[in-house]
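Format notes (please read before filing issues)

Several people have asked whether sequences and structure tokens are stored in separate files. They are not. Every record keeps both together, in the order shown below: the sequence lines, then the token lines. Line labels are part of the format and must not be stripped during preprocessing.
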Amino acid sequence: MIELIKAGYSATQLKTFAADILNEATQQGASGAEVDIGVNKGFSVTARQGDVESVEYHQDKVVDITVYFGKRSGSSSLSDFRPEAIRLAIQAACRIARFTDEDQYSGIAERNLLAFNYPQLELAYPWSLTVEQAIEIAKECEATALAYDKRITHSDGASISTTEAWNAYGNTEGFIGIFPVTRHEMSCMLIAAQNEEMQRDYSYTVACDPQLLASTTQIAQEAALRTVRRLNAQSLKTRRAPIVFAAEEARGLLGHFMTAISGSHLYRKTSFLLDQLGQSIFPSHISMDERPHLAKGLGSAPFDDDGVATRPNIFIQKGILQSYCLGVYAARKLGLQTTGNADGAHNLFITTGKKDLATLLKTMGTGLLVTELMGQGINLVTGDYSRGATGFWVENGEIQYPVEEVTIAGNLRDMYRNLVEVGNDIDLRGNIRTGSILLEEMTIAGS
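Then the structure lines:
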């Protein structure tokens, strides 16, 4: 396992620390205890208009402790690693637990579910980058972007950030697990102006391995192109039309689905997908699964927040909902088994077709390409969906002009059922890996 020296702690130190916390909890009378520890260290720089706008160093650590007295539980959090602070935090958690109501579903995961033999995943790739080097990269990115087109008048900044972290979890069933992760990012945000109109857009790249980041030139040029393409934007008259969600926005569309099948929404009965196991949710050509042990995956993890071993899960198979997304507590309340998803899905994949975005637009013919969404108009109880959108109007498979100040609306149940195709332009910059998504029809509310 890689020792992240910059993070200030080694795996051995954090395991010992976790064991000491669990031992202190039992000494204070707890029948069981869990501890989550996160430590990270890194820095970020931002260059704006050729100058250094900010340099920020961060070194964070947090400890979350939960103690159990039978079926009563209490929790506390702190960022102070001193023994006296830990003792007082456990004391506070124990005091809370003694006065809370019993919850028959609470408690540590069953021992046979814990990840005692968890794999060592390839997730930690420190970036040997100095602050001075990061500043030069950010300045270069911004300068390249500003030189791309004379309509690019200002920059909202080019940024570089790098973080190294440890994630640790332990409980009094004898399990203590720890794994390192790294995350590196570069972004550029620009402002373009023409005929007294101004538009803003950006581009970014993110990866756990710096070798997988897009180049400075790629980010600069993509940010500039995206920004100038938004000039001369128009609204639309209210209508119904097909919609293509660009890949980076399609992630959110699938994210709403994963939220709807998550345990907390199901046992609270606040999901439109309640009691839908075995039912058709998507067309038969769509399947969806997670791959938690993917090397260099931004969503990879050897165990979840309950210490349960992660595993590949199939959520949708040929359109049919096969599994919910559950942690231990939610599974117990629902009378089901945990799926190792106490912290959500890990590297979600959806079936993709063979068409790139340009070909997908030709398939759509006439409709709206959505490149940015605004607002949070999602009602997970009913599935009603309404969000502000910008993008491009498409006719005969070709982009005609940019669009702004419209709202797209529908119902997620209908949107999923009427998913026509997923493009092969897969966005790798997140936990959900999908290409652009073509939907049969939605309401576009404009002028």
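For reference, the curators noted about this record: The mean pLDDT is 95. The chain is about 25% helix and 35% strand.
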